[in-house]
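#help-structures

NK: newbie question. if I give both the sequence and a SMILES, will the prediction place the ligand too? trying with NAP
OV: yes, paste both and it writes out the complex. here, I ran yours:
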Amino acid sequence: MTIVVTTPTGRVGSRAVRLLLQAGVRPRVLARDPARLDPATRELVDVRRGDLTDAAFVREATAGARTVFWADPTPPIGADPVADSERTAAGLVEAARAGDVARVVLLSSVGAELRRGAGHIDALGRIEESLDATGADTLHLRCGYFFSNLAMSLDDLAGGVLPTQFRPERPLAWVDPRDVGDVVAARLLAGDWHGRVVQGVHGPEDLSFARVAEILTGALGRPVRVRAVGDDDVRAALAGAGLPPGAVESVVGMAAGTRDLVPEQPRDVVTTTPTTLAAWAYAHLRPLVDEAVRDGAGSGAAA
Ligand SMILES: NC(=O)c1ccc[n+]([C@@H]2O[C@H](COP(=O)([O-])OP(=O)(O)OC[C@H]3O[C@@H](n4cnc5c(N)ncnc54)[C@H](OP(=O)(O)O)[C@@H]3O)[C@@H](O)[C@H]2O)c1
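OV: that's the protein plus ligand as structure tokens.
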């Protein structure tokens, strides 16, 4: 019963690997740099070294698997990120179509159900469709907005500002990626699901960015206020940083295309996961923001 895990050094993948080890399973992990696995973990897994953008490697390294966990590793920085992500999944799709992979657990996203108009999230919708067409059993985990995205705003947070392209007052699902890893591992280990399954992973509660700013004010021990950022401002910043037009639209579209979305999967006991933003932010974000403050970040931003 071989279980293959991609992105074993990532936030979700590393948690899934840990739980598989604790369940007594020896997973096969696909890593481009096995040295990035912690040494104790490395001894307990079968490592295949390779790049997930190498379709031949993925095709060969997933063959014979009962279940594969697939996370799209493609950063949205190329001229056509959706096409890049589809190309990266091609080796897995081919292995599933050939009957060499029985089941796939896909790390998908809220918004993938739209199929179009949600920037780089569209890639996950396309991968869902490609995998569904293979005849393999597929589970699409449509995850909410990862808490860890906040770590992309350290300089602003150090200055007391939480910028967002979403509507500040509109709640959305926020989730700890570690909790996503828990659900991934549970599904990799479960033997009794078949066909096509779609499951939300929605975190403990829906939160607006305005509410997130309040929670961060408590967890970080410093005042944080939300600041709405327009799509065109984000476009200009990304273009100014040198991203090609396709990548800019891919990033902008993720929020622009989902800011009014009601997820296809309702919040319920299956989609709700335990870790609160307050607990996560205190443990993981506060040290990073404190460090950014020590480094002098955000000193002009709070005015
Ligand atoms: N952020 C969100 O709000 C959100 C919401 C829903 C779904 N998602 C999905 O979550 C996924 C990211 O999960 P995460 O946060 O757990 O990832 P992460 O912590 O950012 O880690 C990225 C992982 O991808 C690996 N990787 C990157 N490029 C690779 C390549 N070319 N070949 C092999 N491995 C490669 C990295 O390996 P190294 O250690 O070698 O760098 C690392 O293990 C994405 O697919 C995204 O679509 C995100």
